[in-house]
Amino acid sequence: MRTGIWYKNVTWDDAPHLNDQAKAALLASYPEHERATRSQGVPLLGSGAVYPVLDEDILCDPFELPKHFYRINGIDFGIDHPFAWVALAWDKDADTVYLYDSYRKSGETPVYHAVVMKKHGTWIPHAWPHDGMNRDKGSGRPLWKQYKGHGANMLPRSARYDEKIGGPQGTEPAVIELLERMRTGRFKVFRGQSAWFEEKRAYHRKDGIIVAKNDDLMKATQYALMDKRRAKVLVLAPPPRPKYSKPIIGGSR
Hints:
This protein has helices spanning 20-29, 32-40, 55-58, 110-117, 143-149, 172-183, 194-202, 216-226; strands spanning 48-49, 59-60, 70-76, 83-91, 96-105, 126-127, 187-190, 204-206, 209-210. It is an alpha/beta fold. The protein has a domain at 57-230: Nucleotidyltransferase, domain 5. The strands form two sheets. A six-stranded mixed β-sheet has the order 2-7-5-4-3-6. A three-stranded antiparallel β-sheet has the order 1-8-9, with no helix packed on it.
């Protein structure tokens, strides 16, 4: 028998006795700052949620991604916490980013994670944090090169806002951009990404500082977003040119 404390975040979507009309009426009866807590179970921790946006405002039904959407994935290596991976598609025409897949797993090796990282195509680049430069104690190889060795398309340097300024990057610029996109309808998440939404609801500040705990998917999203200029679009090879036989000049005698 297991001991200890176990918890699970639940939302109004887990309450079948509430229909859309009842949810709307209840939501309108609560103060705005309590609505996320009342409807989604977002804890009122510290000085508030990092992304005080309702899940339904950024949720969208999955659709087939058009070929012209640019793609980039983001990872958080999980050195002393779960490994996390997200897949983003960027519609440059509408400047809208879609998070269409995600993954979080503890206790596995790079070869296992790399299988998931390649599931949508080995041509999609991966943004990764500066701690990927750390060397593995056993092999002596940097972490990012281990994943590259297993076929993952790793960008040749760690994620950064400016190509000329590498190293560890501040979190706030990516957080601000993502929040602005959420509020303006330019960041959407496919339905079914429950682990991502659980992290988003619990992501909070204490004394104005973001609490870096249980934020693996949030960080992976931030790295992909800050490196979105490196996103790629699938380039299809041109069809082979038909072969024509050399014309006979003058005919036969």
